[in-house]
Amino acid sequence: MPKKVVIVGGGVGGSFVANKLAYKLSSEVRKGEVEITVIEPAQVLHYQPGYLYVPFMELPSDVMFRSPKKVLSPLVKLVEKPAAKIDLKAKKVQTADGAEYPYDYLVVASGAVARTDAIPGFNKTWYTLWTYEGAKALRERLRSFTRGTLVFSVTSTPYKCPVAPYEFLFMFDDYLMSTGLKKDVKLIFTTVAPHLHAQPNVNKFLEEQMKMRGIEYRTKFEVKEIKEGEVVGPETIKADLVVAVSKHTPADVVVNSGLVDQSGWLPVDKSTLQIQGGSGVEYAIGDTTNLAVPKAGSVAHFQSEVVASRIHEEIALGHADTVYRGRVICFIMTGFEEATQVSWNYENPALYPPPSSKFFARLKDLTNYSIWGVMRCGL
Fold it and tell me: What ranges make up the beta strands (E) of 246-338?
């Protein structure tokens, strides 16, 4: 019987793990000694970092969308059904139609979900960047927004791509400057968090950027309600347009399988990425975990190499030595044509970001336009 690797989720993390394993274990897969299966119901995968651009412009469709079949290695089996239950004791995954997929190794890469139903009035009294439909609706709204107050509220943490709110504000401020509308538009940012960013040097950078651009901000601002024309929290802020980050949770399969901890996320070992409470052959990566690292594609990418290496080592050597050291790399767009970059890990906090430049913006463009190819090659 072949060793069965089952991966729940075919997004960035899941596809990277699958393709990296297909490369590392290509001989074993071809001989029938290893079987790699990805369970992913979506017919089309979205490049979620591209949502940032949608309010202003559309990236090419072959950048924004890709079929899982075109992303995954031909050595990987694709099950186009939603996973309904993960049973760690029985070592199997059940899909919505009742089919069961036993595993010798499991990787949960099912991501996080922006719960737009957590705040009444989605796409009516408030808008968001965290769904494609929401980003498109925001673009339509921005076309008629030429004066007044825009309030951007982070209502819950953690959420996907922690710097995206600032990138949107900086890009929108860039737009206001270029169109002469800045004098007629006021920007206010609120967050439930006690700071703009958990990394002190990044926090300092963002505070300075906000002040330089005249963007007001309030921390520890718990949004109680978003109503027509106002955001209600510790104070009521009048708003002509509200953009918000709603509550995020793991995918339903993780929650319904009883795998979350008190934080509401899937607990894993910070170094091995093994699921706590499992038998040692179950892993989780990316946005679904409870790790104190950003929920971002780059993090899922780095973690995928760790998990793929550990599974390869277990199969080939009988033990695994590779560990995740908390590596994070993050671009921060400071306008349409400039960006900066920060990085850190468990041992070394982020340094103060280098000056914004077109160089970093082009590096981010390179990431945007190459990610599917990089993923397909398992790099």
Answer: 248-250, 282-284, 328-333
Average pLDDT, the chain: 97
Q: What does each C-alpha distance from 4 to 41, 93, 173, 251 come to in angstroms?
A: 20, 12, 51, 23
Q: How far apart are CA 221 and CA 233, in angstroms?
A: 6
- Using an 8 Å Cβ cutoff, are 379 and 22 in contact? no
Per-residue pLDDT, 379: 84
Pairwise CA distance, residues 332 & 165, whole Å:
10
Encode pLDDT of 103-162 as tens digits: 999 999 999 999 999 999 999 999 999 999 999 999 999 999 999 999 999 999 999 999
The Cα–Cα gap between 50 and 58 comes to: 8
What's the rounded mean pLDDT across residues 209-227? 97
List, for residues 67-77, the tens digit of each pLDDT value: 999 999 999 99
| Contact (Cβ atoms closer than 8 angstroms) between residue 245 and residue 226 | no
Identify whether the C-beta of residue 165 lies closer than 8 Å to the C-beta of residue 154.
yes
- Among positive and negative, which fits the CA dihedral 140, 334, 175, 337? negative
CB 107 within 8 A of CB 283: yes
What is the C-alpha to C-alpha distance for residues 135 and 153, in angstroms, rounded to an integer? 15
Going 256 to 260 to 261 to 262, the CA torsion angle's sign is: negative
Kindly state the tokens that stand for 97.
């139609």
Length of the chain: 379
Which residues are 138's β-sheet partners? none
